[in-house]
Amino acid sequence: MNLLLLEEADFIAADRVVLRDRRLKHMQEVHRAEVGDTVRVGRVNGLLGNAELLRLEAHEAELRVELQSAPPAKLPLTLLLALPRPKMLRRVFQTVATMGVPKVILLNSYRVEKSFWQTPFLEPDAIREQLILGLEQARDSVLPEIVIEKRFKPFVEDRLPQIALDTLGLVGHPGDFPACPRAVTQSVTLAIGPEGGWIPYEIDLLRQSGLQPVQLGERILRVETAVTALLARLF
Amino acid sequence: MNLLLLEEADFIAADRVVLRDRRLKHMQEVHRAEVGDTVRVGRVNGLLGNAELLRLEAHEAELRVELQSAPPAKLPLTLLLALPRPKMLRRVFQTVATMGVPKVILLNSYRVEKSFWQTPFLEPDAIREQLILGLEQARDSVLPEIVIEKRFKPFVEDRLPQIALDTLGLVGHPGDFPACPRAVTQSVTLAIGPEGGWIPYEIDLLRQSGLQPVQLGERILRVETAVTALLARLF
C-alpha cells in the first residue's frame, strides 16, 4: 500500500477521517505509524495529498487530511478482455488499476468457461476491492470503469465499432500477424483473448469492427502478464 | 499448461515416458485426453515435440514421444532482482521463466526484510517447480539459471562489473531519470529493486558498476508487474 485511499464514509469533517478496517491494521502493522506521522493519502475519485495521524488506538485512528495534487494521468485506452478464470480475474483487476487503464470491458468468448460468469469476484463490491488495491499500489485514486458484456456478437457488432472509432484498434492474437506497435501516440482500443485464444470467427468479427490482429512473439503469456506486456509496449 | 515438460526420470525408453503426477492429473482433468490423442511436450533443457497417448489409467499414463524442434530463443539479458517477499517470489519465478529470462541473480538490498531469505521457496526444488510452471506456460523447455547473492556490496563491487561489461546496464528506479529505452538491440543487464526501492547508496554502487538508472513513469508497480513491463519495453 503506497497510498491510503479514503472513502466518503471515512470523513467526519472536511479535513478529518476515522479509519477502522484493514487500513488501520496496515498503518499499525506495516507502517508501524505513530501519532504525528504523515502518510500519503488520496480520496477515491478525488485528489491526492497527505494526512497527519492525530490519534491511534487499537480499534481506530483519526487523521487530518490535506488534499492538493491531481492523480496520475490514465492511459488513452479501452481494454476489452475475454473474462479470465476467477483467480486470475482478481489479479487482473489489480493490474489494470495499477497500470492506469481507465475502462475495461469484460467480454464473453467461445473459450471462456460458462462457470467463470458465476464467480463472486464479479460482484461490484469484490471488483471494487481489487481495484482499490491496484490503485493503492500505483498511487492513483480514480477507479477504472468495469463493464460486463456477456454476449460477444451483439457487443462486437453493434457497440464496438463506435468505441473503436478514431482509435488504433488492436487485438492481441498469436500467429503470423504484425508485431504489436510501440510507443503509439493515438488512443487505443485493445482486445485480449482468453486462455487458448480467440477462435477464427471471433477474430473475423473483431476485425470487421475495427481491431487489427497483432502478436507479441511465440511465448504464450498468462492474461495478467499479457496485459502488462502489451500496455508497456504500446505506451 | 501449454506444454507438458518431461523429466529424465519419466523416460522408460528413448521414445517412451510414463507419467504419474500432476501432469497425469492435468491430462485427465483439464485436457480430458484420451488414448490416441497427441499433446505438445518438451524435454527439460532439451527439444520440443509431440507425444501420443498410448495408455491412460487412473494412476499412470504412457506416451510415445517425438522431439524435433528447438525451444524459443531466450532474451539477451541478465536480470538482477532484489529478493521479493516470498509470495511474490514464487510468481516472479514463473514470470521470468515465461518471459524467457535466461539468468536471474537474487540480490540482497537494504529494504529486503531479513526474514525473506528464510523462505522455503528459495529451496532448489521449490524454485525449480515454479520455473517449470512458467516454462510450461510459455512453451519453453530450458530452465533459467537462478543465482543467489546474499551480500550486496561484494557482489556489486567485485562481480557485477564483469557481468555488465559490453552490455547495456540499467537499473529501474523511480525519479528524475531517463525513461527506460525501447527495442534495444544489445544485451542488457537490468536491476530491479525491492518494494520501497533501492537506497541512494545502492544506486551509487550500481552506477559505479555500470548500471544507469531509468524510470517507467510515476506509477509504482509490483515487482512482478515491473519485470514484465520493463522486459516488454526493452525487447
Instruction: Tell me what the CATH architecture of the largest domain in chain A is.
Output: 3-Layer(aba) Sandwich
Describe the oligomeric state of these chains in a short phrase: homodimer
The greatest interface between two protein chains, and residues involved on each side, is: A-B, 26 and 26 residues
Q: Structural class, judged by helices and strands of chain A? A: alpha/beta
What is the strand arrangement across the widest sheet of chain A? 1-4-5-6-3-2
- Gross geometry of chain A: elongated
What CATH calls the topology of the largest domain in chain A is: Alpha/beta knot
How many separate structural domains of chain A? 2
N-C termini distance of chain A = 25 Å
Count of runs of 4 or more consecutive helical residues of chain A? 6
Number of strands of chain A: 12
What string gives the helices and strands of chain A in order? EEEHEEEEHEHEHEEHEH
Helix content range of the residues of chain A, please?
Answer: 25-40%
> In CATH, what is the homologous superfamily of the largest domain in chain A?
SPOUT methyltransferase, trefoil knot domain
Radius of gyration of chain A: 20 Å
How many strands, which pairing sense, and closed or not: the largest β-sheet of chain A?
6 strands, mixed
Overall pLDDT score of chain A: 96
What is the class of the largest domain in chain A in the CATH system?
A: Alpha Beta
EC number (chains A, B): 2.1.1.193
Family (chains A, B): Belongs to the RNA methyltransferase RsmE family.
Keywords (chains A, B): Cytoplasm, Methyltransferase, rRNA processing, S-adenosyl-L-methionine, Transferase
Function (chains A, B): Specifically methylates the N3 position of the uracil ring of uridine 1498 (m3U1498) in 16S rRNA. Acts on the fully assembled 30S ribosomal subunit.
